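Readers outside the structure-tokenisation community will struggle with the description of the input data as it stands. I therefore recommend that a typical entry be quoted early in the introduction. An entry of this sort, consisting of the sequence and the corresponding backbone structure tokens, reads as follows:
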Amino acid sequence: MIIITGATGRLGSKVVQRLLDRIPGEEVGVSVREPDRAAGLVAHGVRVRRGDFTDPGSLADAFEGATQVLIVSAGVTGDAAIARHTAAIDAARAAGAKRVLYTSHQGAAPDSLFAPMPDHAATERYLAATGTPFTSLRNGYYASTVPLLLGQALETGELVAPADGPVSWTTHDDLAEATAAILTDEGRFDGATPPLTAPEALDLEDIAGVLTELTGRTVRRVVADDEEWMAGLIGHGVPEDRANLLLGMFHASRRGEFATTGPVLTDLLGRDATPMRSFLAETVTPR
């Protein structure tokens, strides 16, 4: 049985949907903190059990009978993230899983300027040290982040944000489809995958250009001072630690940490990965 954690989240839910296109529901199990939110999967034959990374006992039950476990990374950073990931890895191994898969990131590195990246790197090191076969999915940066960075750009014509660098923005849908392909082709990748990214890397200047083309209204990129931008976030109620985290993303992108692209995602999909222009046309521009 293939177990998917975080199966009510944005990525995990899509992975389950794609798996059900490939294999019977009876071969899929989900581990979720709130089983009621996944109740609809039962009708497809999926096994739904409660599993919480902070409660190892619940993971033992959720992972029972697993042949593979996909661990979707936790939405926290630092020691808390690493502790949750290692608890899930230990539980998967204890359940007898033959392979553990983990949703890492193309920018995973111990010296990254963006806080989640060292956490991914530490989780990968832990996985490698267990001796259990594993696949670390080096996912591209989620394209869904871009609409959150636009602010009032579509209303004011100015995309205001700190200095940035190119990012290979990649959609959840594409990554979920590729993950399902990897899960159903056991052993295709051993260790960290090559970057699973869209084929081009765009900075916010490029994004402003795309928005201009899509809307017919000029959107101008305006570079904000780091501290002023962060102060503006805090002034609008964003917690300071969250604002610092977001600023770290810009620092990392300036250093080129998210600029890598590659053909592997397209190969897995058997089609072109979704370009940012298509994503923005569907998500942020008027129809």
The two ends are 42 Å apart (CA to CA). Strands lie at 2-5, 28-32, 47-50, 68-71, 99-105, 134-139, 158-162, 191-192, 220-224. The chain has a mean pLDDT of 96.
